[in-house]
Amino acid sequence: xxxxEARGLTKRFGGVVANRDISFTVAPGExxxxxxxxxxxxxxxxxxxxxxxxxxxxxxxxxxxxxxHRRPDExxxxxxxxxxxxxxxxxxMTALENVMIGAFQRTRDVDEARRAACEAxxxxxxxxxxxxxxxxxxxxxxxxxxLARALATRPRLLLLDEVTGGVDQxxxxxxxxxxxxxxxxxxxxxxxxxxxxxxxxxxxxILALQLGELIADGPPAEIMRDHxxxxxxxxxxxxxx
Amino acid sequence: MARLPGLAAAAxxxxxxxxxxxxxxxxxxxxxxxxxxxxxxxxxxxxLAGYCGQISLGHAVFFGTGAYTSSMLVKTLDLTxxxxxxxxxxxxxxxxxxxxxxxxxxxxxxxxxxxIAVGEIVYTLALNxxxxxxxxxxxxxxxxxxxxSNFQFHESKQAYYYIALxxxxxxxxxxxxxxRSRTGFYFRAIREDALAAASLGVAxxxxxxxxxxxxxxxxxxxxTFYAQYVLFIDPESVFPLSLSILICLVAVLGGVGTVWGxxxxxxxxxxxxxxxxxxxxxxxxxxxxVVYGALIxxxxxxxxxxxxxxxxxxxxP
Lengths: 241, 317
Known about the structure:
The complex is a heterodimer of chains A (about 240) and B (about 325).
Chain A: E1 4-13, E2 16-26, E3 31-35, H1 42-49, E4 57-62, E5 65-66, H2 72-77, E6 80-82, H3 95-103, H4 110-123, H5 139-151, E7 157-161, H6 172-184, E8 188-192, H7 196-202, E9 205-210, E10 213-218, H8 220-225, H9 227-234, H10 236-240
Parallel strand pairs in A: 3-8, 3-9, 6-7, 7-8
Antiparallel strand pairs in A: 1-2, 1-4, 4-5, 9-10
Helix pairs in contact in A: 3-4, 3-5, 4-5
Chain B: H1 6-22, H2 26-51, H3 60-77, H4 81-103, H5 108-128, E1 138-139, H6 158-179, H7 182-192, H8 194-199, H9 204-230, E2 232-233, H10 235-238, H11 241-254, H12 261-280, H13 287-302, H14 306-315
Antiparallel strand pairs in B: 1-2
């Protein structure tokens, strides 16, 4: 059975259709990439899956059970963690405390949450910044912090909104390695990514969105050859060249 | 975090315990009692606003609920005010859930405005509700002799002093306990970013309601204390908007989101209020508020973290 299934998801904002009739499945253990130009509806899709927005039509299923109208915190407790494209750290809390909020999902005990949070921070390479305030961290560090926070909830499915966006070139390989490690340890991931090289290399399967519609779903090599994807990304000129 | 060392806290507590034994004049004792009362109120408010980030300007609702519940129970059923105090706290907590559930749908300023509206509604209801004395107010029946079970002490203010101090210690203990628990971490996460908190599994509304219930219950305890201390209550004295605002001012001046802030705020503002009243008498009724206003402006411009924040900044090398 698929871990995650979207059935005909549609979301409108006024006259704009952010997602139109989107259906796909994610099997346990998969690493799925989502690509698409700005405004294609990638983040909206994450919002629909995680309960931050309500679809106008369609359903979200986890383990085959509908969760369409669950609240975000309920979705999280069902084992789905996410990061945000626009980072949302708890600015006045330390990095450790930020991650503890995630760890508290698994335990009431403060010391235990602190231990789990330390581990998660180590895992993303932020162990030495544990006691820094989140507002004092660089963008790359905040990105890792958000990842650690999501990981601390011990999710089965992790939705990453832009792994490398806004991060300097030097830190990209580290982040990519981190995602690959998580996947190797059995975590199922859905990753929104703008950097084509990164995503083609990372994902086993890619969903391509354009103007709210799912225009392709397949292995990276196939997606690279898909005319609609090439048009959406590079325009006709590229194909003719 | 800069914490007042345990030794200093113990010394302060010892001094407070010894104070009425040394100072027997009623007025200084009265000022201290008012400091404890407002510190407790500000601490209760701090739990909801400082830690959980929900700015309430309607906390007089819970203060009045505590005052009226115990007073009505003394009057009609001749129940000890202590039982009434407990009943008032439970009722205030329940009321806070009824108010909170719809009002927590609003965020930021809109939440604050809605709590003002609720406060005014309750004030108007109390003003017109004959059963509880309406605008005439309510006298708490005088009981003799002075005793703890009667919760009335006409000979000296000493007992009131210790009860008020005990209330404050309770509020501090509750805050400390919350601060060091998962609930406290969740409160702060909600204050910082409710959406991010939800994405990590925090049931935001449930925890806001929990903060509100705790805060309301502690506030109601103060209401009962006030009723037993003054022995007369009316809507003007226990339900007014000015009280809700004063509670907020004390906490903000001292510094929100810390255990010490409300204590410092009360220790500064209450003597100031009492002092200006003495200096300028009844004619200068609002003058203490003028001074408060000036102070708040100074704090918000110079040191938004409050006096505790200022002390921390100065304490840093």
